[in-house]
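Show me a record, fold above all:
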Amino acid sequence: MSRGPRAAHVRRDWGSSEDGCSILHVDMDAFFASVELARRPQLRGRPVIVGGAARGVVLAATYEARAYGVHSAMPMTSALRLCPNAIVVPPDHRAYHEVSLGVMEVLSDVTALVEQVSVDEAFLDVGGARRRLGPPTQIAAAIRQTVQRRYGITCSVGIAATKFVAKLASGHAKPDGVLLVPKAATVDFLRELPVGALWGVGERTEAALARWGITTVAELADCDVATVQRAIGKVAGAHLHDLAWGRDPRPVQPGREEKSIGSEETFVTDEHDLGVVQSKALELADRCARRLRQRSLVARTVTVKVRTSDFRTLTRSRTLATPTDVGREIYLAARTLLAGVDLRGLPVRLVGVRVESLSPAAEAVLQPTLDDVAGEGAGPGEARRDAERAMDVVRERFGSLAIRSAAALDAPSPDRSTTTFQVADLS
C-alpha cells in the first residue's frame, strides 16, 4: 500500500502524445486485499483489512477501509478504532506469492524488459513491443484486462518517458486506472506535486527542505541547486533537483535469469467438465512454448498445478527425454500428469502449466523421433516446431488471439498407455 504523498488536485489528462513514452509502471491495487476479495467475492464493497490478530499490524486494506483512515503498518487496534465495522482477514502469503508470479508472467509476455521492484509492482520498457502490440496505452489496457481476467484483481498503470514519472503517474491513476504523462508535459506534471512525492524525500528530508521554504516540486525546481544542496547535502540535493526537472536516466533493468516459465488461469466458475480443464492446459502449454521460443530457450521438465474448489493445490512434474520448445510436446506431458491427479470428485478452480530446467536452445541436443529419422527431410517433430513458429509470426502481427492450437487428443504420446487413460478420463 503506497504511503507517498498524492496531490488530489492533479488533473488526469495531460495530452495524448505517446512519443518517447516507453516506460510503464504497473502497480496492483491494494494487492493483498484484492487477492482476498478474489477468493471471497462476497466481501466486495465492504471494508476489509488484511493483517494479524489484535496485536498485529495492517498489511493491506481495501479502499473502503482506507476511507476511514486505515493504512499499512498501522497497529490493528488503531485500525479497528477508526473502522470498527471492518472485516479482518488473516494473510495468506503463499497465495499472494502465487498471484505475484502469475502477474509477472503476464508482464513478461509483453516484453523481456521487466524490472520487478516489489511483490506487486514492476517497470516495463515497451519500446521494442510497440510494433507488435501497439502504443503504450493499448499495451496498458491489455495488461489490465489480462490481470483482471486471470486473477480477479485490478492494477493501475503509469506511462511516461522515465521510471520516476511513470511511478508517480500510476499512483495518481489509482485505483484501477491509467495515466499517461506525455514527454512534453513532464515538467508541468511534476510542478503540481508536493516535494514529498519525489523519490528519496522522507519526513526528515521534507522537513529540511521546508526550513528553506521549499514545499513543492515547483519551488524545488525554481530554486538554485546550490541552495538545495546546502539544505540536504551535495549528492541528494543535485539528485532531487534533477528529478524536479524530470531528469531520470535510469533504464529498466530486468531481474535475474529465468529458472522457469509458466502460466495458470483461474476459471470464472469452478469447472466440473474435465474436458474443459484439458483444453485450458493445451492453451497454457502453447503459451509456455511461445515464451520459450521468444527467449530462445528449451525446457526439460513439465509441471502441472491443479487447485480444486476446496482450495487444495496439487502439483505433478515430469522430466522429458529431451528438452523442447514445442507446445504440443509440453501439452502431451501435461495431459498425462493431469490424469494422475486425484480430484476427489471436486470441480477445478485453477489449472497451471509450468516448464523448468531451462537451457539455451542453441546448446540443446534435440533427439529426433523414429518418425523423424525414417522420414525424408524434416520429420513430424521439426515440422510441428516450424508450424508453431509460423503461428508466432501470425500472433506478432495480428495479436495473441489470432490463431490457436487445435486439441491433440489423437496425437501419439511418449506414454501411450497412460495417455489412453487420460483421454478416456478427461474427454
